[in-house]
Amino acid sequence: MHRHHFFIGLIILVTIGALIFFTTNKGLYPVAIVDSKIIFAKDFRKVTESAFAFYSTAVAVYKKQELSEEDGDKLFNEIRRATLEKLIEQSIVGKELSNRLGGGVRAIIDNRLQSVENDKLEEMAPRLYGLSAEEFKDMVLAPEAAAELLANDFKSKNEDYTAWLSNAKKAASVTVLVSGVKWVEDRVEIK
Known about the structure:
By secondary structure, the protein is mostly helical.
């Protein structure tokens, strides 16, 4: 009987360990929660890495030098902060856009992105950002199109988008679960 309990306990322990390994390895854990919407580590990591790749390339091209380790660390921390802040803002914008325009938001955004030249994206996105053209559209262009769409909706109703966004960020329930940064009123700050 004790042997049976031992094996059941061992199987449960191994299963829990495998589940933890899988979720952390795949980035399937939250780094922030915005009004009950989860921002996953995999998205945060991907956007942060692509931004860092872009800035590192820009520094190498324009300054004709590589980043020092100290400057690279400072840049990476600032990119992490700015990326998380942008993802939180995108979550707030997405929620408001859905409230205003309903379920067809993604189709409208996809329609707007039809005009993007895929040939140039397929060439430039991997070189500058380390992303495929589709990843670049999803992670960079689609959120910008959503913000533009919402801003245009505000403008058409003679409402102030900038003031709304500032107030919405202050009113949002934001919980940051990643170390080294914190949410303060309406922005992410480095601790």
